[in-house]
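Hi again,

Forgot to attach this to my earlier email, sorry! This is the prediction with coenzyme A bound. I've pasted everything inline since the attachment limit keeps bouncing my files.
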Amino acid sequence: MASRKIGLIGLGGHVPARVMTNDEWTQYVDTSDEWIRERTGIERRRIASDDESTADLAVAAARVALEDAGLAAIDLDEIIVATDTPEVYTPDTAAFVQHKLGAREIPAFDLGGSGCAGSVLALDIARHRAVGGHRKILVVGVELITRLMNWRDRNTAVLFGDGAGASIVGAGTSEILTAVAGTDGAQSGILGLESGGTRVPFTPEGAAEGLHKNLVMEGREVFRHATHRMSAAAAEVLAAAGVTIDDVDLVIPHQANIRIIEAVRKRLEVPEHKVFVNLQEYGNTGSASVPLALWEARKEGRVQSGSLVLLTAFGAGFHWAAMLVRI
Ligand SMILES: CC(C)(COP(=O)(O)OP(=O)(O)OC[C@H]1O[C@@H](n2cnc3c(N)ncnc32)[C@H](O)[C@@H]1OP(=O)(O)O)[C@@H](O)C(=O)NCCC(=O)NCCS
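Structure tokens for the complex follow:
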């Protein structure tokens, strides 16, 4: 089988309709619009309605990406869903997506727990599983974080929002040039959930206290690592492809905090107009953040056919991943 260029042949995204402003957060915690804007750059975020679940958001984004690619769900050969906020623990969200989307009985699996780096890692997995461009793989990054977070914890809750970003990986004119990824599991206690799973199983008492929603986050440490890892991964992927930052048309960093993005921008020595930011609208949407931003960047005309785009992401684990893709 001849090998063809493997890239992103369809892009999509979906966010819930309900907008929540920073001011609304003052009903729940001691905070202010000014604090959230200044410390994070976030102005509003989307909140899923009670009748929406993770798979619903994923399917909505997937439909947009399929239409963009000129494909139907039955054309898909595989589905990968990157999420830390799954439909249920078992089976994985990908099973629900396969069914709701009306895909064939194809392989479908989640990449769970890799936090906000999950979708870039999933794209890299998909490119290797596209078998020389003979298969079409749906990759969705999706989070419904606001249902699984502690609305009384001002340190974490104000940062997040719900959404989904989807890409179809397959053969076409687009090409994923290279990707890098890494993990530092020594930092696993700095960002993550304390309970659930086998180490600290859920108990009725713990659930009543909301322990399953308590995100542990050492904000300043996460900030420091995120800045370092996202810029280092970006530099590594540029070197691996034998290009420089000047060759890149747009950098799409994980949308966690405008100050993290700004620090990465400075380290990479890239001008502001070459960095895409939409976190003022959506907050941190976890693994949805990069594919959602990529889709929006193309809608806004900031990414066009032939653009060289650098994706860089960081999340719980710690995990990080960067990718260079010619659109
Ligand atoms: C969380 C974060 C915004 C905090 O910003 P910061 O400048 O580091 O703020 P600090 O941690 O120094 O906290 C400053 C003060 O603001 C307070 N504060 C925290 N959240 C607040 C809120 N929503 N509103 C008002 N005050 C708040 C803190 O309690 C602290 O008060 P204290 O000095 O009386 O203890 C920042 O550290 C960050 O973005 N970290 C990375 C988080 C992240 O991206 N996580 C996901 C990674 S994928």
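The chain has a mean pLDDT of 96. The chain has two domains: 6-173, 179-326.

That should be everything now.

G.
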